[in-house]
Design a protein that fits this description.
Number of helices: 3
Number of domains: 1
Strand order of the largest sheet: 2-1-3
Strand content: 5-15%
Mean pLDDT: 78
Structural class: mainly alpha
Radius of gyration: 19 Å
Helix content: 55-70%
Oligomer: single chain
Number of strands: 3
Low-confidence stretches: none
Distance between the termini: 23 Å
C-alpha cells in the first residue's frame, strides 16, 4: 500500500510487495507536519498578542460592546486552536502505530476544520 501526504504529493511509504494492488492511504510527511506545527505556533502567538491588547483595553469606556465581541471571538479561536492541536496529535499517534484508516479519518477532520489543504 502506498501512503502519501494529505498536504503535498510526497510518498511517505510505498510497500511495493504486490505491484498489482493500487491501495492508497494518506498520512502527513515530516515537512508538512513541521509546517502545520509552525503555523499553529504562529497562530497561538497572534491569539496571545490579541489577548494582551484586549486585556490592556478591558475596562475602558470606548466601545465596550466591540471589546466583548472581540473577547468572545478570541475565546472561540483558542478553543478551535486547542482542538486542532489535539487532532494533529491524534493523527500523529495513529500514523505512528500504522492505524492508517484512523489516521485518514483524523486528517479528514483536521482538513475539515481548516477548510482544505
Amino acid at each position: 500500500m502506498r501512503v502519501i501526504c494529505a498536504w503535498c504529493p510526497a510518498v511517505i511509504r510505498d510497500d511495493d510487495s504486490d505491484p498489482t494492488v493500487l491501495e492508497v492511504s494518506h498520512g502527513i510527511c515530516p515537512s508538512c507536519k513541521d509546517k502545520i506545527e509552525a503555523d499553529a505556533r504562529a497562530s497561538n502567538r497572534r491569539i496571545n498578542a490579541m489577548a494582551r491588547v484586549l486585556r490592556a483595553n478591558r475596562g475602558r469606556e470606548t466601545e465596550p460592546a466591540a471589546l466583548d465581541i472581540a473577547h468572545e471571538r478570541l475565546d472561540k479561536a483558542k478553543v478551535r486552536y486547542e482542538r486542532l492541536l489535539e487532532e494533529v496529535a491524534a493523527a500523529r499517534y495513529l500514523i505512528a502505530v500504522e492505524d492508517l484508516t484512523g489516521a485518514a479519518a483524523a486528517l479528514d477532520r483536521i482538513l475539515g476544520e481548516r477548510g482544505g489543504p
